């Protein structure tokens, strides 16, 4: 089932990246997100693939994995309210991790194209989000020593 605008806005409100936005700005950004679902075992993205989307999980679990000589290690487990793909805002070119649905999942995503639209139409909103990501990355060890971090630099 589709996610209501209210649910999308509430989900984003609880995400550190959007805490600098007021109600009107948050609604504008929420409107750019698209609802998606995926079956267990499907990949949101693969290591070394070009970044295409920023995702906030609504339901289900995602495992973030890193290739190692023996196969792949699960470096983080994410669930409702967690996000991944924030490197998209920083112009990083490729994912350094893979993300696979560990169960059936529902999520909202902001594509590279829609993010570009926000940047062009409302640059102050875009840069507020970038500031949130920068703050997050500067105070976070990302994956190292955290069993289930609330926010993960997942690519």
Give a verbal description of the structure.
This protein is α+β, with helices and mostly antiparallel strands. Helix content is 29%, strand content 28%. Helix 3 crosses helix 4 (123-138). It is globular. The protein starts with a helix and ends in a 17-residue tail after the last helix. Mean pLDDT is 84; it is low at 144-155.
Write the layout of secondary structure elements.
Layout: H1 5-13, H2 23-32, E1 34-38, E2 43-45, E3 53-59, E4 62-68, E5 71-78, E6 83-84, E7 98-101, E8 105-111, H3 112-121, H4 123-138
Antiparallel strand pairs: 1-8, 2-7, 3-6, 3-8, 4-5, 4-7
Helix pairs in contact: 1-2, 3-4
Strand content: 25-35%
Shape: globular
Which regions contain 5 or more consecutive residues with pLDDT less than 50? 144-155
The averaged pLDDT comes out at 84
Strand arrangement within the widest β-sheet reads 1-8-3-6
Cα separation of the termini:
28 Å
Structural class based on helices, strands and sheet pairing: alpha+beta
């Amino acid at each position: 089932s589709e996610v209501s605008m209210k649910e999308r806005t509430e989900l984003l409100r609880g995400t550190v990246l959007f805490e600098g936005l007021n109600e009107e700005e948050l609604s504008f950004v929420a409107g750019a997100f698209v609802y998606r679902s995926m079956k267990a075992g499907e990949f949101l993205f693969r290591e070394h693939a070009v970044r295409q989307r920023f995702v906030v999980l609504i339901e289900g679990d995602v495992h973030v994995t890193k290739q190692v000589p023996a196969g792949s290690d699960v470096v983080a487990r994410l669930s409702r309210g967690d996000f991944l793909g924030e490197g998209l805002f920083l112009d990083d070119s490729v994912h350094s991790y893979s993300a696979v649905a560990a169960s059936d999942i529902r999520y909202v995503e902001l594509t590279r194209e829609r993010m570009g639209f926000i940047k062009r139409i409302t640059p102050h909103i875009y840069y507020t989000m970038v500031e949130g990501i920068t703050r997050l990355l500067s105070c976070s060890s990302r994956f190292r020593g955290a069993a289930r971090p609330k926010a993960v630099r997942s690519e």
